[in-house]
Amino acid sequence: MSESQEIEEVIRRWLDAWSQDAIDVFLDFYDSDAELITDPFWLDAGTFRGHDAIRGFYDRFRESFADGNRAVLVNLRAAGNTVVVEIDLQGRGRASGIDADVLITSVNEVERGRIQRQEWYFDLAEALKAAGLPE
Which residues contact 77 (CB under 8 A, 6 or more apart)? Predict the structure, then answer.
């Protein structure tokens, strides 16, 4: 298996852990001092560093959904150790009861089988540009 295939497999397993609500397994895919940056339009926007901060962000995010949510892989593009992942996030809002079906994209830097840096976007073109990939 090539390095890019291994990195893609890390991302696929990371998404599976999210959809299975296995938060501890999900968080194990992050390096201990990883950095997560959200799109400025995200409800809980900001920069989160390290496992505790990233766990807090995702715990708050998960709480906003009734009965969990699913992350469906739409597209995955790798260039070296950078992987752009387009996801269809599906769930039902806890407070509103409204079904959500939102396309979101993350740009992930993966080294030694762990996510070192992850940045979230609502705009795919913006994410691809940030990763230095063509549209």
Answer: 83, 84, 128, 131, 133
* pTM confidence score: 0.89
pLDDT tens by residue, 28-71: 999 999 999 999 888 789 999 999 999 999 888 777 766 767 78
* 83, two tokens: 């992987």
Domains and CATH numbers, the chain: 3-131 (3.10.450.50)
Cβ neighbour number for residue 16 with a 10 Å cutoff = 14
The Cα–Cα gap between 2 and 81 comes to 12
In this structure, which amino acid lies at residue 124? Answer: L
Residue 94 DSSP class? T
